[in-house]
Design a protein that fits this description.
The chain is mainly α. The chain is 54% helix and 7% strand. Helix 1 links the parallel strand 1 (6-11) and strand 2 (38-43). Helix 3 crosses helix 13, helix 4 crosses helix 8 and helix 8 (131-140) packs across helix 9 (154-171). The protein binds tryptophanyl-5'AMP.
Length: 335
């Protein structure tokens, strides 16, 4: 690899499509950053199974997620785009990191607390508890220094820094410490029907989620039914106008228009007008991506070849790093 810094990020194939928050919060940044970094993008299937997945659909969702990365503009010849379970060093390093992670420290992860509460704490698995150490392994394995993500991942990246630093001080300088790259304006997209809650692939109601793979007419309909407020003014104010602010954020991200300019252009116009403009902008971006993803998915053998080649590229970087880690920890090398 060149002297460029390394970027690592990933998404869980926990639904049959990514949602607009994944795109605005992360994927859009990935595409912009892939030229300036040695970029590594992972479909984190082992993270997906920390909550129950249907074995009949998981492989398909994994392919669909990879296809959406490519359709959004990730170049799998230039960047490395692979499936997490194809490179076993991730789980092997995660185990080592588990041994230097405090139980209390892991218990403080808010995403674990939220997800565990959703399932009922008794049903939450040890895998869900260890989700952040697997994520730390993903990042540390490649000495990634930039991790572009949405706001909800900030705490996990701080933990990754802590674990990397702890390993370095106990066993000798081994890992580079990563920084989260979080775009302030677009770090959190909210549910269209419940604009106080983060939009999520696992939302209970479908009507509040915009899926990248949805048909354009469905997307437009959802946006036109988005919850707003009783007021009439179009301005960004997250506290007082969460629904309108969310729509403005989406529009700003899709049209690269700064918020003050958008607000000025909507002065005196109504919510119906705002919604149609947002729907047109989203459909204009997502429709060609959906078509490209479907085209890629129509030839799964070719897609699998791309993923296999890229897993080999990732493994070439990951294996020597894991060997160094094992050696530093004092594990007996297999002769
Ligand atoms: P996942 O699949 O939950 O989310 C993928 C990415 O989308 C961002 N995101 C959002 N951004 C803005 N608004 C939203 N409503 C929204 N919903 C999701 C997430 O912040 C994330 O960037 N744990 C990671 C997956 C992962 C990973 C890694 C990321 C595993 N290993 C290593 C970076 C580096 C996750 O949240 O996936």
């Amino acid at each position: 690899m060149s002297t460029k810094a390394t970027l690592f990020s990933g998404m869980a194939p926990s639904a049959d499509s990514l949602q607009i928050g994944n795109y605005i919060g992360a994927l859009q940044q990935w595409v912009e950053m892939q030229d300036t970094y040695n970029a590594i993008f992972c479909v984190v299937d082992l993270h997906a199974i920390t909550v129950p997945q249907d074995p009949k659909t998981l492989a398909a969702s994994t392919r669909t997620t990879a296809a959406q990365y490519i359709a959004a503009g990730i170049d799998p010849e230039q960047s490395i785009l692979f499936v997490q379970s194809h490179v076993s060093a991730h789980t092997e390093l995660a185990w080592i990191l588990n041994t230097i992670t405090g139980f209390g420290e892991a218990s403080r992860m808010t995403q674990f607390k939220d997800k565990a509460a959703k399932q009922g704490t008794e049903a939450a698995s040890l895998g869900l508890f260890a989700y952040p150490t697997l994520m730390a392994a993903d990042i540390l394995l490649y000495d990634a220094t930039a991790v572009p993500v949405g706001d909800d991942q900030r705490q996990h990246i701080e933990l990754t820094r802590d674990l990397g630093g702890r390993f370095n001080s106990r066993f000798g300088e081994t890992f580079k410490l990563p920084e989260a790259v979080i775009m302030k304006e677009t770090a959190r997209i909210y549910d269209l029907q419940n604009p106080e809650a983060k939009m999520s692939k696992t939302s209970v109601s479908d009507s509040g989620v915009i899926w990248m793979m949805d048909e354009p007419s469905k997307t437009a309909k959802k946006i036109k039914s988005a919850v707003t407020d009783d007021d009439r003014e179009i301005r960004f104010d997250r506290g007082a106008k969460p629904g309108v602010s969310n729509l403005l954020t989406i529009l700003s991200a899709f049209t690269s228009t700064p918020m003050p300019e958008l607000e000025a252009s909507f002065a005196g116009r109504g919510y119906g007008d705002l919604k149609s403009t947002v729907a047109d902008a989203v459909v204009a971006t997502f429709e060609p991506m959906r078509a490209r993803a479907l085209e890629l998915l129509s030839d799964p053998a070719e897609l699998d070849r791309i993923l296999s080649r890229n897993a080999a590229r990732a493994e070439e970087l990951a294996k020597p790093k894991l060997a160094t880690v094992y050696e530093r920890v004092g594990l007996l090398p297999r002769s």
